[in-house]
Each structure stands twice: as structure tokens, then as C-alpha cells.
Amino acid sequence: MSGTELPLSAAEVDAFVRATLAEDLGTGGDVTSRAVVPETARLQAVMATREQMVVSGLPLAVAFFRALDPDCTVVTKAEDGDRLEPGQELMVVVGNGRALLTAERSALNTVQHLSGIATLTRQYVDMIEGTGAVLLDTRKTLPGLRLLEKYATRCGGAQNHRLRLDDGILIKDNHIAIVGSIEAAVKAAKEAGTGLQVQVEVDTLAQIAPALEAGADRLLLDNMSPDTLRAAVEIVGGRVPLEASGGVNLATIRGIAETGVDYISVGRITQSAPAVDIGLDFLAA
Known about the structure:
By secondary structure, this protein is α/β, with parallel strands linked by helices. It has two domains: 10-125 and 273-284, Aldehyde Oxidoreductase, domain 3, CATH 3.90.1170; 126-271, Aldolase class I (TIM Barrel, Alpha-Beta Barrel). It is built from eleven helices and twelve strands. It has helices at 10-25, 31-36, 58-68, 97-127, 146-155, 173-179, 182-191, 208-214, 226-236, 253-257, 268-271; strands spanning 42-49, 53-54, 73-76, 83-84, 89-96, 134-136, 169-171, 198-202, 218-222, 242-245, 263-265, 278-284. The longest helix has 31 residues, at 97-127. The protein starts with 9 loop residues before the first helix and ends with a strand. The relative contact order is 0.16. The model has no long low-confidence stretch (mean pLDDT 96).
């Protein structure tokens, strides 16, 4: 997966859309639209921004509308990853009125949530522009939405850290506590023969040398001050990539990036991103 290519197959998109609509429709369906809107009514729906944002999830919104009205006409006015100003249109949909009204909330919820992540991510990326540091996301995602939330961070300009527990070795303090030392933990990870890079979380400068001597391929510098991070960068001297993590926010990330670390991971871009404000206005078609 890379860039802004939706990380779901057609079958996976279909399953996501159907599960989401089933949650919203219940067993009785959209009783309001069925009772109020004539069966043959046609509507035009215009989705537009109400604030500055970075778009993510637009293809999923299209899929929601087409799931309920396969014959609807959709014209997209933006692409995932685009930066938009308030009032810009994302898409225009023309189709069966009942179907469009029924799909409205699922489509909006998805785009608002994913675009919120992309928008917050871009704010962090902009803060470290020119430093050479790269923003990473984390596994702090909502259950069942990890692929999409990590996709949204890519739309905002971040790179993905581990997607799952099986695509990278990260030795943390609890692992070290169990086996007794950094050296023992790294040795065991290397001998496991996974072929994966071995990253080690270090909390103090004193842990750096043992980790490197044991053969760590990368270090995660956890909750270190900028002064300590600069010292760590000097000690390592470019031998392995360094990732700073912990206590990172928009006020602190620039100073962290300027210490010379290679990567900065931020959990809050997925964990705490607010949904963006997007409207969907209907007119008779």
C-alpha cells in the first residue's frame, strides 16, 4: 500500500459498505424516507466542505450511494489527499431520493472521520516541513478501521508504521523486563529468523549502547526531551534510524524534529482527530 490508493479490494469495500448500512438500517430500513419521500422522487445531493480540510475516504462515499442506487450518477470534484477550502464541492450525486437520503449518514460519517485524520495529520506534517524528519502513525486505531485510518494518515502525508504485530519487531520495556536485558531480547529476536528489522524502545541514553551492540536495526526513543534526543542522535551517529515517540503534539513536534531524529510517531493523529465538517445538501433533480 502506498500513497492515496484505497487499501481495500472491491470485495472488501462491498463488505464494509454492507456492514455499515446494515448497522444503520436495522431490520426496518429507513422508515422516515420511505414514509415521506415518493418512491420515484429524484434528488441531487451536493457534498461540500465547511472548513479547511484534507480529503480522505471519498471513494467509500461513492460506494455507499451506489450500493443503494446502482444507477445514480456521481461526479467527484476532488480526490483523496486534496487540500480544500471551505465551500468547495467534493462530489455531486443524482439519483433516487430515498436511496440517497438513506445512504447520507453512512457516507458522511466515513468521509468526515477519515478526512479528520488526514487533516490533523497534514497539520503535523506541515509543522516539521524542512527538518528531514518523517511523521509516522501508530497502531492506536479503532478496532476494525485500522486499514482505513492508516490510509487516511497517508492522505495527510504521513508514512505508516507497523500495520500489524506480524510486520515488524518492536521490543518494548515489557519484553525486556520479561527476558531480563536488552541484549537478551535482541538476541532472541535475531535468532527467531523472521527476516524482519528489530527495533528496540529505549528510555534512557544508557540503553543505547547495549541495544546497538546487540544488533538492533532501529531505535525508538521513548518520551525523551529535545536535549536528550539530541544527545541520542550524537551517540548513534547515523548507525541506525532513530524514531522519537511519546508526548508529541503540535506545539512540541517542531522542536523534536529539529533534534535530528529520522522519524516521529504520533498516536493522536488517529486516536484523537476530530471529524471535519462536511455538508450534504439536497435539491430536487
